[in-house]
Design goal:
Layout: E1 8-14, E2 18-28, H1 32-37, E3 41-48, H2 50-63, E4 70-75, H3 78-94, E5 97-100, E6 111-112
Parallel strand pairs: 1-3
Antiparallel strand pairs: 1-2, 2-4, 3-5, 5-6
């Protein structure tokens, strides 16, 4: 990540689980609307099953009318790293993804997908079109 510039910095907040400062780095897709739309604080509103997310992503890809972008979130400080790990563990242990609750103008849906360092990127998101 040292060679990349972050595209957003702010808070991720899931009440009763974790709140921390995070930076978003580009991975794949177009980020113009995302950087315009993201608020100072991303509110996680709940959980969703991976199956539901991937069904939806496949429909979006098939329609050809919407764009999908992928970012990597990285905590800013060591203290943020602890809260980040708590949120990661929360979703991983429940086998769920996070659903962002903020209403945005251009970005329709935003999901937090917990991927461990040895996990493969879900095939629905590859090939990457960007810095990877």
């Amino acid at each position: 990540l040292a060679r990349l510039n972050f595209i957003w910095k702010g808070f991720i907040n899931m009440p009763s689980v974790a709140k921390f400062v995070i930076k978003a780095y580009p991975v794949s897709g177009s980020f113009e609307y995302l950087t315009e739309d993201l608020p100072d604080s991303i509110q996680v509103g709940g959980r969703i099953s991976p199956h539901t997310v991937w069904d939806y992503v496949e429909k979006i890809k098939a329609s050809g009318t919407k764009e999908i972008c992928v970012v990597r979130f990285t905590p800013v400080t060591e203290e943020d790293q602890i809260s980040y790990a708590l949120l990661f563990a929360y979703f991983s242990s429940r086998k769920r993804y996070g659903v962002v609750a903020n209403n945005m103008k251009q970005v329709k849906d935003l999901y937090l997908i917990p991927l461990g360092s040895s996990d493969k990127v879900p095939h629905h998101l590859v090939p990457f079109d960007g810095p990877g």
